Amino acid sequence: MHPRRIAVLGGGPGGLYAARLLRLARPSCEVVVHEQGAPDTTFGFGVGLAAGTQRRLEAADPDTLRDIAATGCRHDMTMRVGGRTARVRNDRLIGVARTELLAILQRHAEKAGVRLEFGSRLAAADLDADVVVAADGVGSATREAGGFGADVQIGRGLFLWCGAGFALPDAVFAPVDTAHGTFVTHAYPYSGGHSTFLIETDERTWRRAGFDATTEALNSGATPPDASDTRSLEYLQEVFAGQLRGHPLIGNRTRWQRFRTVRCARWSDGRVVLLGDAAHTAHFSIGSGTKLAMEDAIALAEALTGENGPAEAFARYEAVRRPAVERLQELARRSQLWWESFPSRTGLPVEQLMVAYMTRAGNVPLDRFAVTAPEVVGAALGQFAGLDGPVPALPDLTGWVLDRPLRHRRRTFPGRVLPAGDDLGPTTLEVTATDPWGGDADALLARAAGAAGVRLTGPPDRPSVLTRLDLAERVRTETGAVVVVRAPAALRDDLAAGLVSGRADLVEWA
């Protein structure tokens, strides 16, 4: 049985795009979007769409992408630390105003014959439809009311979204040290001469600055639900004055939040299917919710078009999308942990920090990054090796890294691979933790206190080795010990990236 009536709960990018694609695929099907807000109001500022997402949108619906690209703003990426800047060319990324994106998607949905209804808060049970697409966001009431096996994990770090009334020339990552601690902004331009400023910090800094009190006051119900944390905005406006160039920060329901990672055992329940943030989230530092939701919409429309009934279509949709989503969620988990521990790295030279940033989740190989950003990687290699200048392009980058000598206090090592039989010291730690900054890792760190050398060993699989590298960084930063990571030689490229990024001092073949 093919659906004759489809209802979409939520008029964000994922819901609107799904509605259009479903209507285009089935012109005889009634498709209605139900959005509780007004058509011209939205949270947020700019949205970033990477090159891969653009290719998928181009294949699914070139007309919509054409309009999105026309209103968007392309830009490179920079990192600024200690008065120095590292630049990476990345102009395939488009920044677009969320208001513009929604207007385009609303217009294209209506052009396809979708009916848009605003201003009513409805539940799936209220809708007379063969299929209900729940695109109602990270706080999805549909998900919470259904049998989806939802699991929501709350991050440690805090962040808020704000904006500014001018367009930055590039995206910028910039940490600033204050009397209270370190704040870091991820800022980027988008259409209309505006920029998004996402600002993050750790809980200790947040409390020292008094933002726990402002957050509590806003959440107490004594202020309107659309109020922004004006005290935080005023403070951060001064902190990031250099990046803002005299412009004020703009709030839009701007409040401190902790990231919520949503996972669901099932994405469908009866006639209801989840889409986008309602089904899954991935930390914004690695992939936007808009990207995931619009790619979900493509897969859902294809599944509902190709299968005989909703149950089969939902199974196909989940089978196609879940592997890609779970892979991105794992990359995002690593990236989130890296950003939540970011203040410990601000002592690195900016080029080395850029390499650490690009390789933080394990999805950008060092040699590939060296091709796209040779100046940055060349400078980082020189900093890693203690040379006076940058290193030119290398035919065997990994081999060169592993061959660099290391002098640590009174010991000198001829290369970064620990020779067989060198016990380094008495402290060997077996690492089974998956969170390098969690309680299990804290216990290992306590055992490393006072050691001159620490060896980290554990399972040979790649995810475990990447975790050991992250923990090694923490051990060497907090104890000053020379730290060696034991791992298979097959993962030498990952180990070399870890060495250049300051995650480890030495490696040892398992």
UniProtKB/TrEMBL annotation:
Gene3D superfamilies: 3.30.9.20, FAD/NAD(P)-binding domain. This is FAD-binding domain-containing protein. Coiled coil: none annotated. PANTHER family: 3-(3-HYDROXY-PHENYL)PROPIONATE/3-HYDROXYCINNAMIC ACID HYDROXYLASE (PTHR43476), BLR0106 PROTEIN (PTHR43476:SF4). Keywords: NAD, Oxidoreductase. InterPro entries: FAD-bd, FAD/NAD-bd_sf, PheA/TfdB_FAD_monoxygenase. It comes from Pseudonocardia hydrocarbonoxydans. It comes from the Bacteria. Pfam families: FAD_binding_3. GO terms for molecular function: FAD binding; oxidoreductase activity. Residues 6-329 form the FAD-binding domain. The lineage of its organism: Bacteria, Bacillati, Actinomycetota, Actinomycetes, Pseudonocardiales.
